[in-house]
Amino acid sequence: MAKPTLWTGGRLVRIAVLAVSGILQATAAMIAASAGSTLLIGGASDDRRGVLVATVMIAAAGLFALRVLQRRLAERVALGYVAELRSGLISHVLRLPAASKTTGSGLVMTRVVNDLTAIKNWIAAGLATALTSVFVCLGVLGFLWLRNPNLAILLAPAVGLWLVIAAATLRPLNRHIRESRRQRGRIATRAARVLSARLSLLLHGRHGQIVRRFDRLSSRLNGSLVARATFSGVIRGAGDLLFPAVALTAAVIAVAAPIDLGASELALVVFGAGILAAQLTTTGTAAEYWLAHRVAMTRLDRVFAQPAIDHRPERAGRRGARPEPNIVVRDTRTDLAFEASAGEVIALTELRADRVRDLFQRLCRIAPPAGLEISLGGKPMAAYTPAEWWRHVALVSDTLPLTHTDPVRAALAGARASEPSNASDVLVKFGIAIGDGEPQGRTFTTRKTAALRAARAVLRHADLVLVDDPVVAGDEEILTTLLDCLAESKTIVVIGQRTDSARHRIRTVAAVEAEPA
């Protein structure tokens, strides 16, 4: 799936509205400043004073309303895009092959939380404020130029000084933002691993070492965050230098050719400097958000660049058509080839567990089917879309965890056209009693978990069931029940290891490792 596009028609319209909002904000601010300065120096007659007061109030109310509108529009644009990006990211991660190295829980969570937050902040609080700030600054300088060119001359060098400081700060700030992101990712990945193995680590006395490891990681993260805050403070605080720079500019100009300004014009300079200082400070914040957004997009691009299992049809055909129950398999990675017809049960022998797992993942199409020649119902795998193929194939494996703690819901996960009552009937066959008082959220025993995985495959109504589960294959009762249930639908069963359970019903197929090419 391609990464969603930010610049769509609707969002471009809202961005244009934000630009217009910046122009209107500058106009309202300078109208309020002009009328307010006249009031402050007492340069208005009694008749005009009421008009000026009303002007200041209306302009201030308009500026307030425009700020609220800016925030609403920016948030809507940001949240809409981030929602699309989040859906696209999760969809892409779900379709990554089983062997992908980018599906660690810590890695994915840092992308979903930290990186998407950075992107949202840039669009909502960065892009919007930068866009409006540019127009506000241009509007203020333009207004002062029209009023008296000397006013703009006083402020322009101060703005130039801010631009020089900001440009010098961006590169080191970007470097420390990248480093802080890397450190956060390492901590999140490490935390996910520790959480999954916490009981084992605790039992083996590794608690202290793990905590010390997190202390070191946290120290590195804090160092990068402090360095980031230093440069962030420079770019944000540069706006406070605006008024001193204006005073210095005026002092330098006064040596060569003093500028004669009236009281109202001096007041406008003060108001204008205050407005520009506030806008440049927010622009500095926006620059930091922009850099964080760039780092986040680069990290997300690495995930989207990973080739995923394509859901699009490869060939035209009838979707969901049930194939004839026969299968032909040849694996060039191992010396393995077999055929099976409806209801037949096969057990593979002389094949290492990792090879079996690799073969079954390719047969299931959750890994690229490299080196695999397979046809189901007389049609090659390429004739099916992945979604169609998954409707015909089920995998019983201890690598596929249960998705619910309620046994009925766990068994129904992935089932087609099955009701809870039907699931309960199947579970009873596997020795799992379902009652009205069945507790929720409990921990299943190893054997009951294996029985639930087997029941899930029965309710899948697949044409091919692959068993890569040592507990299921080694338990006479579970395996017999599984084969009995699947025999009713003439399902082909391939077991990934030799088993003594129900061996009178199973045909063995020997395979050895292929010689290296």
Plain-language structure description:
The chain is α/β, with parallel strands linked by helices and 517 residues long. The chain contains 15 helices and 9 strands. The chain has helices at 9-40, 46-94, 105-147, 149-196, 198-203, 207-237, 242-256, 263-304, 353-364, 386-392, 407-412, 420-429, 446-459, 470-474, 476-487, and strands spanning 326-331, 336-341, 345-349, 372-376, 379-380, 393-397, 464-468, 492-495, 507-510. Strands 6-7-8-3-9 form a 5-stranded parallel β-sheet, sandwiched between helices. Strands 2-1-4-5 form a 4-stranded antiparallel β-sheet, with helices on one face. β4 and β5 (379-380) form a beta hairpin. The radius of gyration is 34 Å and the shape is elongated. The two termini are 34 Å apart.
**Approximate shape:** elongated
- How many H/I helical runs? 15
Biggest sheet: strands side by side, in what order?
Answer: 6-7-8-3-9
- Please tell me how large the radius of gyration is: 34 Å
Structural class: alpha/beta
Helix content: 55-70%
Distance between the termini: 34 Å
Average of pLDDT? 80
Number of distinct beta strands: 9
Largest sheet: 5 strands, parallel
* Element-level helix/strand string: HHHHHHHHEEEHEEHEHHHEHHEE
Report the β-strand fraction as a percent range. Answer: 5-15%
Low-confidence parts, pLDDT < 50 over ≥5 residues? Answer: 313-319, 436-441
